[in-house]
Amino acid sequence: xxxxxxxxxxxxxxxxxxxxxxxxxxxxxxxxxxxxxxxxxxxxxxxxxxxxxxxxxxxxxxxxxxxxxxxxxxxxxxxxxxxxxxxxxxxxxxxxxxxxxxxxxxxxxxxxxxxxxxxxxxxxxxxxxxxxxxxxxxxxxxxxxxxxxxxxxxxxxxxxxxxxxxxxxxxxxxxxxxxxxxx
Length: 183
Hints:
2 domains, three-stranded antiparallel β-sheet, alpha+beta
């Protein structure tokens, strides 16, 4: 009980010091906190220590941005495949089939010869893991899988920009496509 009271008092003193630090002469704002000269004091660390909040470096805004980028890419690919095959029988699996969404098929439809999984990533997707998971969970009669990957890089301004789009299919599927093209 005494320790808790002393800890709380120490936290209040530190809080007062932190706010006086902010209005001190020579104060400057740095990327994630406040600094005085060369020293650095992060308000995130203070909040964690004072309030006991969860100091997790993952940011929900980043997760939302990644999710939005992925969903936007799925819709873009679905639209392109509709135009390419001249059919409206293409949609995202989130809208149509929970089972197909759970096995990794993001874009599906009777109008296309494959199921599509979309990835928007800076690094190369783990292709062997994606295809292994699909093979283990698909049902007989399911179409082959094609992985569409939009490679992105972070600009100096902190914005991710697409630098290339690639499609990966299994070798047997590629050979089948070549054979069908020659007939």
